[in-house]
């Protein structure tokens, strides 16, 4: 065998430790060797045959003949490129056996590269440590190995060590390190590298420039990425793909498209990565026409069967609302991997085509494609939207059967599915079984609890979330504030507000809206307005929430003024806005204003009234005593009146004791919903208030025959950040004796000032004394008495009640507010009542 001089094959083999990005450098070195040593070409061609090379090695090993460095290097290069680690380790063992001290640095670099490229970075590091004369190739090979195998931090540390020993990096070293910064999102380190790159003059190098553009774009510095691209003298396809992908990734779709056309004009043909990025840009800016042009180019370039391109085409058509085109692309794909199936399922689920998503999932199973966590996440999302509990359970069982792990992403989707299908126990079981939970997992269960009305459980889970070291997100805070609003726990809401005001969450509009809602529903409408005024930004929900808050509290004129301010601010009201405005008018008896705004809906804003709007108007006419107009309005409704419309008019009949209209209204309500207990109770109250006890008894008997029972009254009050619950006639509270004594004392004082118990609200055939005794211990009175003995003087008493406050309680609380000189706020089923100095904000209409 002909032996080359050491200097000859050093030049030839310098390529063996370079990565794919070094191809031009490798070719240049090989040509130089062939020109300098004509005999080398023939020898090189022989060693290009892998089988002959390996047979030669085995033969030399069997004969115990020495093997030269050139052969070792070529063998190791072959093992590195083909991933033949077993053979590579045999070569390494032979090197050690024959005495590796005499091996050339080139051979060591080749061995190092073999281990690094195939993921054995620890072995590569051991080889690196053995090299006595390391050159830049040695350092670059190990740095590249670390960065390619996911050990980016180790790669960056080694790069810093390279600088400390005084070695100057080349363009290939910089490319490896820039890719590491891109993977880590480390803009700070990347900017330091940028200074070094400019210092050595590599900014115009195509390898370095492409990696620099990619790093800056992935770190979010897209403008600097554009500047770096402009400095590349001759951009290649990698450079163009990097800048187009960077613009698309950062939401600059127009700039991505502009560079795409420039690339074509420069004579560069796009590849699968360029096409994918361009399609993403078109999808983001809804540029369907441009997307169709790119699709035509994809077909001409024969990339339509590529997985990445196919998935990007599907995203484009789905984002542009062209589901038929998306299905056409999907159906024409010759092969569909899990990624493509999943993309179609997720996209359908996200775009309101949940039934189609489930059909595709069934087809995927028939195609024997194995779903992964992302697939199941899309399926669970579809089931949640459709509230398809059984299909969701089947998908869950299939997930377990195939051994697909329950990661935080899929687990959160599964929790959400069970919660939206009102199967909260299953949601909790999934949460408990999850090995890894993130903020999304906690948040999903908290949201589920709040949506289903399990607010106390949501608050307990929130405390556990904080104990687990999880930081709340805006969605978490919004849900917890909703829970506070539902339970009317103002003190806990104040504590959370304090936390929010010291954090960046204060800038989040949804959190601000939830704070406004919390204060309004906890009875502190003044604090709600303060939060509203301090919010840095308002959206339509902000205005709607504040308007509705004023309506709940009976501040009709303030609600109207705010509505006018909203229009001046340039926001267009929606149907929810008008529900808030009309409700405010009805609670404040602003009849003329209500008529005007109802007409304005369709005339000025092209909003067709819904049943909620009609109910507000009937409520407005009825509560203000305009019964003829109310009846006429119902007759003129273009849709059949719902139960809520008739119940609203029935409640007005109770206020004004209009018995005949009440009977007529109740009849229509019961025809629509015979089992509605609220309708029966309202009618019975009308009869009882008029002293028609026989008719009231008939209604009660009818309820008994139907198996209906009046919902028991219950009230809640927050004392020292703890919620206390009271039922009518409560006996279980630990301080009940003290509470009853306080109520008895108040009753004596109230009677001295003219209070007369209204026994018409006691629907029982009992003696007068027993009726009065029953009235004394209604749930809201017990809650107020507890608040009086527990809260310091001067603080408002805030109570929430699950029913409409009865007439006797309403009258009694007015006397209590005057006697105790306390502001008492009661939130009942219909509205807020602010009692102060013997008066109520509702004016007797509720």
Short description:
The protein is mostly helical. Helices cover 69% and strands 3% of the residues.
What would you say this structure looks like, in words?
The protein is elongated. Among the domains are: 157 residues, Serine Threonine Protein Phosphatase 5, Tetratricopeptide repeat (Alpha Horseshoe); 101 residues, Alpha Horseshoe (Serine Threonine Protein Phosphatase 5, Tetratricopeptide repeat), CATH 1.25.40.10; 114 residues, no CATH class. Helix 7 packs parallel to helix 9 and helix 11 packs antiparallel against helix 12. With 846 residues, the protein is mainly alpha-helical. Helices cover 69% and strands 3% of the residues.
The number of E-state strands comes to: 6
Count of alpha and pi helical runs: 46
CATH architecture of the domain at 1-157: Alpha Horseshoe
Structural class, please? mainly alpha
Give the fraction of residues assigned to helices: 55-70%
Overall shape: elongated
CATH class of the domain at 1-157: Mainly Alpha
What labels describe this entry?
Serine Threonine Protein Phosphatase 5, Tetratricopeptide repeat, mainly alpha, elongated, 6-stranded mixed β-sheet, 846 residues
SSE topology sketch:
Layout: H1 6-13, H2 23-36, H3 38-47, H4 50-62, H5 69-82, H6 85-98, H7 105-117, H8 121-130, H9 136-148, H10 152-164, H11 171-184, H12 187-200, H13 206-218, H14 222-230, H15 237-249, H16 253-265, H17 272-284, H18 288-300, H19 307-319, H20 323-332, H21 338-350, H22 354-366, H23 373-386, H24 389-401, H25 408-420, H26 424-433, H27 439-451, H28 455-467, H29 474-487, H30 490-501, H31 509-521, H32 525-534, H33 540-552, H34 556-568, H35 575-587, H36 591-605, H37 611-623, H38 627-635, H39 643-656, H40 659-672, H41 677-689, H42 693-706, E1 714-719, E2 722-727, H43 736-752, H44 768-776, H45 779-790, E3 797-801, H46 807-820, E4 824-827, E5 832-836, E6 839-840
